[in-house]
Design goal:
single chain, alpha/beta, four-stranded mixed sheet, 16 helices, globular
Length: about 425
């Protein structure tokens, strides 16, 4: 496995350690970029040192308001302010409860009650849902996941700046336990409905620290995954901070095609549904241009040339790659099985597709293909931190996947019988 290594492994004691290290190590590199409005020509660029400074301020403000140890719901779309909440709540020894903004108001309220949340952060454009949740749950501390406004994340950052400047003791002096629950994720995925998965920062940090060394990340990606999913928060926020990669935060699915062409990502992190959508659109374009026979013939020629050490894919399929901005070299996919024809197609045009496997309960990655060892039809190699076995396999070697490792959850929130099972 040492021959698969691309980057040195870096380990972190807690989220504050990661924020401080990345702020120092990657200082003036762009960490996040975005447009305040999708139609804006100019974009906002945030450096890693600016992220660190904002997290210092917001964490200090959270601590001054007594939020250490409290369960805090964050309900919103992809945004810089959402990312700041994630990093700062974990640095303030609070418990973040990320929820899907598309749920019905009553479902959100029920889950916020179940999670015992005392503070609420919501996107301003779902104010009607926010009002229902706050009233039903009796929550008085309600904030907007936004850059501006009296009760916004941006206002909290500004309020925290002079406090941190006066004294950094609260920020640096707060004891953080990497083995304590700090992330409570409610999932209806592969293991049941409505259970709260209790994760630690140690789970997430050890998981991504074990993945990063084997994947040849580019210098820029476009973030499209919803942050309330563990794949969207752990891999996108934590993983990319570890490697110093810029994330352009997408304005939404309807803008992605335009954003890819403008931002020219070198890699993407996607679930199969997104990848299949891109695939179908590309095939449709090929057909509309009358090239449905030409492209497969070109792929056969290209594949033959690759066998003798000649790779001309990026020249031959330049027009196809242009749909992703022209610079993309890799797509990381997880969450479901990938269509083998689709994988062959993307590989054929010059985009390596690394498939992996994981569940929220494992923070979330259990196995992933490596850039230097990408096995077709496989979900990859189990992480070094994990021991994986198939329990009671049948004649086809199929059975329950059992995992033991530092990325495995503490259990299900207040459902001991489910944890025991």
């Amino acid at each position: 496995m040492k021959t698969d290594l691309i980057h040195p492994k870096r380990e972190y004691t807690d989220m504050r350690h990661l924020v401080e290290d990345s702020g120092e190590r990657y200082s003036d590199r762009i960490a996040y970029s975005f447009r305040k409005k999708a139609s804006d020509k100019e974009k906002v660029e945030i450096t890693f040192s600016k992220v660190r400074d904002d997290v210092r301020a917001l964490t200090t403000e959270f601590l001054s308001r007594g939020y250490q140890g409290k369960h805090i719901a964050v309900i919103g779309k992809n945004s810089y302010e959402w990312y700041l909440c994630y990093l700062s709540l974990l640095s303030a020894d609070a418990v973040i409860v990320p929820l899907d903004r598309d749920w019905l108001a009553n479902d959100l309220a029920e889950t916020v009650l179940k999670a015992e949340c005392e503070v609420l952060f919501c996107d301003p454009d779902i104010a009607d849902k926010t009002a229902v949740i706050a009233e039903r749950c009796g929550i008085k501390d309600v904030y907007d996941v936004a850059a501006e406004g009296e009760n916004s994340v941006g206002a909290l950052v500004e309020a925290g700046k002079p406090k941190f400047a006066e004294s950094s003791e609260a920020y640096f002096g707060t004891k953080l336990d990497p083995d304590k629950m700090q992330i409570l994720v409610f999932t209806s995925g592969t293991t049941g409905k409505g259970k709260g998965v209790m994760l630690t920062t140690g789970n997430v940090l050890s998981d991504l620290s074990d993945v990063i060394p084997y994947v040849d990340f580019g210098s820029k990606t476009v973030g499209v995954l919803p942050p309330h999913h563990t794949f969207g928060s752990s891999v996108m926020i934590v993983g990319h901070m570890m490697i110093g990669t810029e994330i352009y935060i997408s304005s939404g699915i309807r803008y992605v095609a335009k954003e890819l062409k403008e931002e020219k990502p070198e890699h993407m992190v996607l679930v199969p549904l997104y990848l299949e959508t891109f695939y179908r659109k590309i095939l449709s374009n090929i057909k509309s241009q009358g090239k449905e026979k030409l492209v497969p013939r070109m792929m056969k020629i290209s594949n033959f040339l690759r066998k003798i050490g000649i790779d001309v894919r990026r020249k031959l399929f330049k027009s196809i790659l242009a749909a992703f901005g022209g610079e993309i070299k890799m797509i990381i996919s997880g969450g479901a099985a990938l269509n083998s024809e689709m994988v062959d197609f993307f590989n054929g045009v010059g985009i390596s597709t690394l498939n992996g496997y994981g569940i929220t309960e494992c923070a979330p990655i259990i196995s992933v293909n490596h850039t230097k060892r990408n096995i077709k039809g496989s979900i990859g190699i189990p992480l070094n931190i994990d021991t994986v076995k198939i329990s009671e396999p049948n004649e086809d070697n199929e059975g329950e996947i059992c995992v033991k490792g530092s990325n495995v959850m503490l259990g299900y929130f207040k459902v001991p019988e489910a944890t025991k099972d």
